[in-house]
Specification:
Blueprint: H1 2-10, H2 13-33, H3 36-41, H4 43-58, H5 62-78, H6 83-88, H7 100-113, E1 114-129, E2 132-145, E3 149-164, E4 167-173, E5 177-178
Antiparallel strand pairs: 1-2, 2-3, 3-4, 3-5
Helix pairs in contact: 2-4
C-alpha cells in the first residue's frame, strides 16, 4: 500500500513512463489500422496522465508535509531566523539534552556565531508510521565564522516527528553525525 501511495501521490514518474510506452504501442496500432476506434484509444494515456498529475498535485501526503517543514526550517535558518523551528518544535520536545526553549536559544546563539550561507539536503528520507515519523536528513551546511572564514559541514540528522492536531511537530533530534552522504 505504501508503494502505491508513493507512486501515485508523491513521485509518479514511473506511471508517466508506463503511460508513454502505452501511448507508443497505441500509436503503432493506430498507424497500422487507422480507424476511429484506435484514434480515440490514443487519448486514454493522455487523459490518464492528466488524472495522475491532478491527483499527485492535489493530495499532500504526511511525508510531503514533513519534507516541506524541514525545507522551510532550513530556508529560515539561512536568513538568520529560528521562527520556523519554533513553530515546528513540539511543546514536549526533548532533544540534544534541551527542551523547546533551550533548543531555540541554542539555535539563536549558533546563528549569531556562524552566518549560515546555505543548507543543502543531499539525502532526505521519511518513514511514517501512524502518528509518528522518523526522518533521516543528510545536509551540507555552508557557513562563515569570524575566526574560521568560510567552511562547509556535512551533517546527518535523525529527527523524530509526531502528528498533533495542529500538524506535524518535531519531538526529538539526535546529536547530528558529521559525515557526507549522497
Amino acid at each position: 500500500m505504501e508503494t502505491l501511495r508513493t507512486t501515485f501521490f508523491e513521485d509518479p514518474l514511473y506511471v508517466y513512463i508506463a503511460l508513454a510506452f502505452a501511448e507508443l504501442v497505441l500509436a503503432a496500432i493506430w498507424y497500422e489500422r487507422r480507424n476511429r476506434r484506435w484514434t480515440l484509444a490514443l487519448l486514454a494515456p493522455v487523459v490518464a496522465g492528466g488524472v495522475v498529475w491532478a491527483v499527485s498535485t492535489m493530495v499532500v501526503t504526511d511525508r510531503e508535509r514533513i519534507v516541506s517543514a524541514a525545507r522551510r526550517i532550513a530556508r529560515d535558518l539561512e536568513v538568520g531566523s529560528v521562527a520556523s523551528a519554533g513553530e515546528y518544535l513540539d511543546d514536549n520536545y526533548r532533544g540534544l539534552g534541551l527542551d523547546k526553549q533551550g533548543a531555540l536559544a541554542a539555535g539563536k546563539a549558533a546563528i549569531g556565531a556562524y552566518r549560515i550561507r546555505s543548507i543543502r539536503f543531499t539525502r532526505l528520507s521519511v518513514e511514517v508510521e501512524s502518528r509518528q515519523a522518523a526522518m533521516r536528513a543528510a545536509t551540507v551546511i555552508e557557513y562563515s565564522a569570524r575566526e574560521f572564514g568560510s567552511a562547509q559541514s556535512p551533517l546527518v540528522w535523525r529527527v523524530r516527528w509526531i502528528k498533533r492536531p495542529v500538524g506535524w511537530r518535531i519531538l526529538e533530534v539526535e546529536e547530528p553525525q558529521q559525515k557526507l552522504e549522497f
